[in-house]
Amino acid sequence: MYHTWMRYFTPGPVHHRLGLVCLGVGLQHGALPTVGPRTLDHHVAVVVSSGSGWYRGTDGRRTTVTAPALIWLTPGVPHHYSADPGTGWDESFVDFSGPATATYTELGYIEPDRPVVPLADAAPARAAIARIARAARPGNPLLEVETGAAVHELLVALRRARADTNADGDPVLAALARDADRRLTVAEHAARHGMTAAELRTAVRRAAGCSPKDYLLTVRLGRAKELLAGTDLPVAAVARRVGYDDPAYFSRLFTRRVGTAPIRFREQQGRTVPGGWSHTVPDPEHPPTILGGSG
Fold first, then answer.
1. Residue 33: is its pLDDT beyond 90?
2. Which residue of 89, 142, 156, 217 is surrounded by the most CB atoms within 10 Å?
3. From CA 140, how far away is CA 200, in angstroms rounded?
4. What pLDDT is recorded for position 131?
5. Quick check: helix, strand or coil at residue 91?
6. Quick one: pLDDT band at residue 68, thresholds 50, 70, 90?
7. DSSP character for 257?
8. Is 78 buried (19+), middle (13-18) or exposed (0-12) by CB count in 10 A?
9. How does pLDDT run across 191-248, given as a tens digit for each residue?
10. Residue 97: pLDDT band by 50, 70, 90 thresholds?
11. Which DSSP category does 75 fall into?
12. What is the distance in angstroms between the CA of the first residue and the CA of the last residue of the chain?
């Protein structure tokens, strides 16, 4: 026996321009019927939260699926899978499409070459899928936008929930961010971690979807923006703080990457705060109480 609930949607062209659209959602459990062999023209994320089964892709090999796990079904790729007929499994799925899928694949959030991904915890992904299911209520005027936004959330939850991902973040990225202001080459950064430059490039590409050089630049520019917006330090001092001895080069780099010059950015975003900004991340669900008033 098994139980199945599903809904399917047909977003319009304007919603596709948001980048991702949700085409369907389903929650199923039990000894479900075998799926396939078949080929789809869109993406599907199948989250198995309990139970086990198998998956077979284009190479014909049968891969065991043991919960918690994710099955990626990607466009144009034949697939065939099933829950164990004796015990079944608990499954939720989301069908989605849109131009942003190419970028998510490039960043490593969607992995066509790894259709079965072990998860450390299926709960966050299930929570995102539950939001899609709730949005599917009849007459919801926000259906397409609400479900599309939840697909973005689902992809992030699945990326974070991989069993091979450290819950505290990738240690290589954390170390690069810590040392981003130091004037080190990529090879020198790699040596500090006992890696070759090629190994570091592979690790950063897998974790962040970019090269070490681009990752370091992103961290440096983020810090530069904070200094420009939150302090009155001269641009030359900001450049030195984030690892650039040549303020003219820093200004050109900042302008090319950010789209506006450092001085202009400061004029637009300046928030000089006596004593500097707080480095403690606030809890959005329990904001600090503001005492007193202006009278």
1. yes
2. 89
3. 47
4. 96
5. strand
6. very high
7. H
8. middle
9. 988 889 898 888 888 777 788 999 899 999 999 999 998 888 999 999 999 999 999 9
10. very high
11. T
12. 67
Measure the CA–CA gap between 23 and 257, rounded to whole angstroms.
Answer: 35
DSSP state of 97: E
Whether the predicted model's global pTM rises above the 0.85 cut: no
Two structure tokens written together for 98? 């849109």
Give 275-289 pLDDT, tens digit per residue: 555 666 666 666 666
DSSP secondary structure letters along 10-56: ---HHHHTTS-EEEEEEEEEESPPPEEEE--SSEEEEEEEEEEEEEE
**Backbone torsions φ then ψ of 268, nearest 5 degrees:** -80, -35
Closest by Cα among 171, 259, 150, 159 to 209: 159
Q: Could you tell me if 65 and 119 are in contact, meaning their C-beta atoms sit under 8 angstroms apart?
A: no
Please name which of 24, 30, 76 lies closest in space to residue 53, comparing C-alpha atoms: 30
What are residue 90's DSSP bridge partners?
29, 50
* Mean residue pLDDT across the chain: 89
pLDDT in tens, 132-182: 999 999 899 999 999 999 999 999 999 989 877 655 557 888 888 888 888
Say if CB 45 and CB 94 are below 8 A apart. Answer: yes
Check if the beta carbon of residue 135 is closer than 8 Å to that of residue 150. yes
Selection from 1, 23, 29 nearest residue 11 by Cα: 23
| Four-residue CA torsion sign, 143, 145, 147, 150 | negative
* CA 121 – CA 128 distance, rounded (Å): 13
d(CA 250, CA 41) in angstroms, rounded, equals 45
The tokens for 83 are: 């829950």
Distance CA 215, CA 208 (A): 8
The angle formed by the CA atoms of residues 115, 48 and 42, to the nearest 5 degrees, is: 45
